[in-house]
Design a protein that fits this description.
Shape: flat
Radius of gyration: 25 Å
Strand content: 5-15%
Distance between the termini: 65 Å
Helix content: 25-40%
Largest sheet: 5 strands, mixed
CATH superfamily of the largest domain: Ribonuclease H-like superfamily/Ribonuclease H
Number of domains: 3
CATH class of the largest domain: Alpha Beta
CATH architecture of the largest domain: 2-Layer Sandwich
Structural class: alpha/beta
CATH topology of the largest domain: Nucleotidyltransferase, domain 5
Number of helices: 17
Order of helices and strands: HHHEHEHHHHHHEEEHHEHEHHHH
């Protein structure tokens, strides 16, 4: 059994045994594995849960027993109850510090079978065999495809290789004359060029153009191949079921020409409002930069109200969820979840709203000539357009009613008079 991957049935046995409070050493002996293998399996595949306790207020703050703060939410001036006894406390209190169960730092590292689990109000961790095996399969697939380099390494490679290719030099020539600057195989660089990861294209290499073109998929560049663990669409549904008051923001990318500028779009599901940000490259760092800007402009409180949950697809530009979820001090500011592959219906609202963008920027057109001011102008027109689903109100009207206009003013999004709205390519010459 050495060096053999765990099967679905073995994972089922682990879950069942954990619920029976069997020790990891006994489970390992039964499966013919080392107990350290089970420890790594459970720690890497366990999923977080916000499940509370029956008839108890879910408060995970370390100060919950002795805190006497009141009227934090400000919208109920007559409220006299302690905020610590309110389910909204943890989301709005600036002094919130999450209490973590000490049992999760030692074997078996999960709440399966814990006798205190029904009464515990802290964040829980569970080992579920179906989710664990699915995550295992996802990671197995992701590790067998894509580019195995960091974004900084890729940028460095692009800066050296692409200008030389565009001078007419072959990749073999470049490698032969720069042996100390590369740790990649010739075919790997060819694959990066063909996959659109570098500024140079196959058209810049005459001999490649003479060859019969092969059907190729774009090469993905995942920052974290395990990013989906605990963040699947199933996890999203379970999370929302425990906190239905939290708003979901759908996130996606609108692509112009291949290898050129792209748009990051953010759709506020409840009011239909959409933000769009121009990015030079379709990489994860450009997405992180957008959210860093939003965090600065909105401030911590408004940001957490606006972006409590992000739902996106499996694009490589969204493969660094921790950088989006945590602020500079390591505090949670949002939650990121991923739709199932090829399941566009799971974020259908943002997909439909992209139709307004395509009315001005048709599919296949280049975004390279655009500026952020052009994008802001476009989104002002799109968000001022009345929708039947909003009782003939515009997304701008609803968003400004719910959250004010301060952030919109900072983002240069304005209300366009109804009869002046233009959704044709001539809006942006």
């Amino acid at each position: 059994m050495k060096n053999k991957h765990l099967t679905d049935l073995e994972r089922l046995e682990i879950e069942h045994s954990l619920r029976q409070r069997t020790s990891l050493k006994k489970i390992a002996a039964k499966l013919g594995k080392h107990h350290s293998t089970l420890s790594r399996e459970i720690l890497s595949r366990r999923i977080a849960s916000d499940k509370g306790a029956f008839s108890r207020i879910t408060n995970r703050c370390i100060h919950r027993t002795d805190c006497d703060r009141r009227q934090l939410c400000m919208d109920k001036p007559d409220c006299v109850r302690r905020c610590a006894t309110c389910p909204r406390c943890n989301r709005i209190c600036p002094d919130f510090q999450e209490d973590v169960c000490a049992k999760l730092s030692r074997a078996p590292f999960v709440c399966n079978g814990c006798k205190d689990e029904p009464r515990c109000v802290l964040r829980k961790q569970y080992y579920i065999h179906k989710t664990a095996h699915r995550n295992y399969r996802d990671v197995l697939v992701q590790t067998r495809r894509g580019a195995n380099v960091t974004e900084n390494e890729l940028l460095g490679l692009d800066a050296l290789v692409s200008p030389l290719i565009k001078k007419g030099q072959s990749i073999h020539h470049i490698l032969a004359n720069n042996p100390d600057r590369f740790d990649l195989h010739l075919k790997t660089i060819y694959r990066y060029v063909a996959g659109g990861l570098l500024a140079a294209k196959n058209g810049d290499m005459p001999r490649v153009c003479m060859l019969k073109p092969r059907a190729r998929k774009p090469v993905e560049h995942k920052v974290d191949t395990k990013c989906r663990i605990g963040r699947t669409y199933e996890d999203y549904q379970a999370f929302i079921a425990t906190a239905p008051e939290l708003a979901t923001v759908e996130m996606d990318t609108v692509v112009g020409r291949r290898g050129g500028k792209v748009l990051l779009t953010l759709q506020f599901v409840r009011c239909g409002f959409m933000l769009a940000f121009l990015r030079e490259r379709n990489d994860s760092q450009s997405v992180i930069d957008v959210f860093s800007r939003l965090w600065t402009l909105a401030g911590a409180d408004l940001f957490r109200r606006l972006f409590p949950v992000l739902l996106t697809d499996n694009g490589s530009e969204f493969s660094n969820p921790k950088a989006l979820e945590l602020d500079s001090e390591g505090q949670l500011r949002t939650r990121v979840f991923y739709c199932d592959p090829r399941a566009t219906n799971q974020k259908s609202r943002i997909e439909r709203n992209h139709e307004f963008i395509r009315m001005v920027l048709p599919k296949g057109s280049s975004f390279d000539h655009l500026s952020q001011a052009d994008v802001d102008k476009l989104m002002s027109h799109v968000n001022s357009y009345s929708r039947p689903s909003l009782q003939d109100k515009s997304p701008y009207d609803l968003f400004s009613f719910l959250h004010g206009t301060d952030l919109l003013d900072q983002l240069a999004i304005s209300k366009i008079p109804a009869n002046e709205i233009l959704l044709k390519p001539r809006l942006i010459p």
